[in-house]
Design brief:
By secondary structure, the chain is α/β, with parallel strands linked by helices. It is 34% helix and 21% strand. It has a 6-stranded mixed beta sheet, sandwiched between helices. The site of guanosine-5'-triphosphate (GTP) has 22 residues, from helix 1. Belongs to the small GTPase superfamily. Arf family.
Amino acid sequence: MCLCLGPPKSGKTFLLKRLHGDSIDVATPTVPTNGMNLFTIKNSDGHFDMIVRELGGSMAPIWKHYFDRVGKIIYVIDASNLCQISAAGVLLYSLLVEPRLQNVKIALVLNKMDLSYRQMRNEALLMLHFTRLQKEIPQKIRIIETSGMTGEGVEELREWMFDPDTLKAATIAAANK
Ligand SMILES: Nc1nc2c(ncn2[C@@H]2O[C@H](COP(=O)(O)OP(=O)(O)OP(=O)(O)O)[C@@H](O)[C@H]2O)c(=O)[nH]1
Ligand SMILES: [Mg+2]
């Protein structure tokens, strides 16, 4: 199972709709996810599907009820809102120390790049203490810059999701259950 997590309004639903191939109406705001959404995402040639479970940011206190059999996490941060990043980091750290998530692969998605300037990537990673963090944790984190609005980075995220190494982690997590 692949989970999509991140603070409220970081753009999870929008990004997953984009990955799913829904037509995006950029003028209509999405509704906050008060619960969960399930999306079936296809790989680039359309031969394989993966189910992604989005848990709303407002559900963060109960995300832990969904950590069994998780192989991959897409963790979405709004990179255009540096004020939110420290809080996003605290939530991310709570995932990294969770015993059931020691073997997961994580995509740290810096989203809303259409609203960000390039340097924000570095500022966001500095605020998350990313370089130090990556040395100290067992999980492998891949950084992907995206915009649900323009579609930037969406195919890179899809490739990461269907990467054979990442899939292996998901299969082992399911088998260990
Ligand atoms: N400019 C811009 N706006 C975005 C982008 N992605 C999402 N938004 C906007 O951000 C708002 C929140 O997006 P959602 O996808 O609902 O956020 P979410 O992370 O699913 O929020 P919760 O379900 O409440 O946790 C919406 O108004 C979107 O239109 C993006 O890449 N760029
Ligand atoms: Mg949502």
